[in-house]
Recover the amino acids of this structure.
């Protein structure tokens, strides 16, 4: 079995989950979280068992309560709704998503038409487009890139959802650059380091494996992209939430299996699959490392302030 490295949690996911865990530890119940803190069923179930309450919108949170914003980010309107309800908000938006929000606002100040490459309906895309309602055009395919229209072809900018397929985004960008030669782009790549690294590592194992299993939930964009990348590299590939979803027919005629995990999938799910294959008699497990990751993000600053106040209050109590 070939084990992709890096795989699993990225720095933004670690940060978001740590934020919820710390809030559950330091604050009295209930602690609310708007949307799924990260797109993984196992993570959400674990945090729910610890006491986190997941809601879809701010109006489901009681006035004055504590609510955490997910790693995918939200529009300014959501923060306004929270303020109107006097909610205490901890913003666990991934810093790399925040970067995209800041970019589109800068492009707007410069008077540029903005195109966002991304998937319609994804939480991250909804939040980014909410920064400038009606001012951002979403492009999800090469075909849409060929058709998108702007008032001034010489004043166009592009930003990208952080969890896209690197190859797909590149193909769309090529079309946009051809159509708009003066296209303004971010100073650094919007597709996050973890997404790119995991796609690079799955390409390596897919070139050697007959079957690639990707641990991740079906609403996880980066996990679904890993499955697509593996298939494009020539392997049979399946996205699974956990070991119970492996089908025996997938293994028929398979000599080499590769395994990876999306940026929101915990390592214990991978180890469950490893244990399953050990029971089947598999003895060789080889790490295939594309690169080493050493990225880490500090917890949200507001959470530090709030947590410190809360800890001080409790320390003063008899």
């Amino acid at each position: 079995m070939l084990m992709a490295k890096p795989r699993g949690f990225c720095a933004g996911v670690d940060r978001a989950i740590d934020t919820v865990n710390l809030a559950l530890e330091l604050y009295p119940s209930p602690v609310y979280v708007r949307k799924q803190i990260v797109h993984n069923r196992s993570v959400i179930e674990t945090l729910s068992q610890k006491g986190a309450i997941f809601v879809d919108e701010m109006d489901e949170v009681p006035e004055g309560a504590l609510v955490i914003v997910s790693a995918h980010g939200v529009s300014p309107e959501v923060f306004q709704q929270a303020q109107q309800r006097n909610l205490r908000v901890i913003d666990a938006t991934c810093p790399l998503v925040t970067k995209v929000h800041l970019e589109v606002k800068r492009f707007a100040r410069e008077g540029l038409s903005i195109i966002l490459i991304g998937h319609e309906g994804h939480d991250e895309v909804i939040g980014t487009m909410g920064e400038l309602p009606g001012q951002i055009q979403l492009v999800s395919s090469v075909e849409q890139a060929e058709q998108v229209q702007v008032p001034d072809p010489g004043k166009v900018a592009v930003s990208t959802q952080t969890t896209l397929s690197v190859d797909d985004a590149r193909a769309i960008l090529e079309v946009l650059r051809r159509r708009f030669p003066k296209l303004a782009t971010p100073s650094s790549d919007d597709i996050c380091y973890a997404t790119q690294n995991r796609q690079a590592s799955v390409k390596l194992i897919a070139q050697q494996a007959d079957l690639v299993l990707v641990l991740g939930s079906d609403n996880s964009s980066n996990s679904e992209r890993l499955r697509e990348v593996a298939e494009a590299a020539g392997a049979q590939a399946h996205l699974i939430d956990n070991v119970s979803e492996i089908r025996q027919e997938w293994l028929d005629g398979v000599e080499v299996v590769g395994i990876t995990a999306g940026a929101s999938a915990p390592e214990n799910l991978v180890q469950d699959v490893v244990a399953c294959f050990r029971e089947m008699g598999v003895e060789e497990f080889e790490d295939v490392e594309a690169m080493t990751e050493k990225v880490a993000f500090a917890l949200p600053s507001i959470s530090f302030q709030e947590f410190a106040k809360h800890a001080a209050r409790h320390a003063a109590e008899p």
In short: The mean pLDDT is 94. The chain has three domains: 2-6+193-289, 11-94, 96-179.
